[in-house]
Specification:
Order of helices and strands: HEEEHEE
Oligomer: single chain
Number of helices: 2
Helix content: 25-40%
Number of strands: 5
Radius of gyration: 28 Å
């Protein structure tokens, strides 16, 4: 199957993933006063605004909520598949365009020794510049020699 048809198939499958709900559903069994257990009691947990929120779910609501959670998980998996197919399709289109112009693109890894910094120049990968362009001072408050940093790994191979 070609990539465009595969992308359409994934989009159609995503459209069928309704209803959806975040979170997870857990069943709890509780110890009974005379021995054994009671339950199951169902709990729906959702991570919202940096807090794990949970609520009790009645047993008759469980099948619909389970289906909604599974649909959301399926949608997320299909979205990842769609992204991968779209990247593959994009690269295929670019390759066709470059072939027409006679240019061949090769994927290369960057050199492990040198890299292009944000300022446009090259820098040694072993040297890490602090944020903001300022050199940090030692804990005692003394000044460091010009051009040195506690982040400079070129001399001893470890931070000072």
């Amino acid at each position: 199957m070609d990539l465009e048809a595969e992308r359409r198939r994934v989009l159609e499958a995503m459209a069928r993933c309704e209803p959806m709900e975040y979170g997870s559903l857990k069943a709890e069994l509780r110890p009974a006063p005379g021995g054994g257990t009671t339950g199951p009691y169902y709990k729906h947990q959702v991570w919202e605004d940096g807090v794990n929120r949970s609520q009790r779910i009645r047993p008759d609501e469980v099948p619909a909520l389970e289906r909604a959670i599974v649909n959301r998980q399926r949608f997320e998996a299909l979205a990842q598949e769609y992204i991968a197919l779209t990247v593959q399709w994009t690269r295929q289109q670019e390759d066709e365009d470059t072939r027409k112009r006679g240019v061949v693109r090769h994927w290369r890894r960057p050199s492990p020794r040198r890299f292009q910094g944000s300022s446009g120049g090259t820098a040694d990968r072993r040297t890490v510049e602090p944020q903001g362009g300022r050199r940090p001072q030692s804990r005692a408050g003394g000044q460091r020699a010009a051009g040195t940093s506690k982040f400079d790994l070129t001399a001893g191979g470890s931070p000072r």
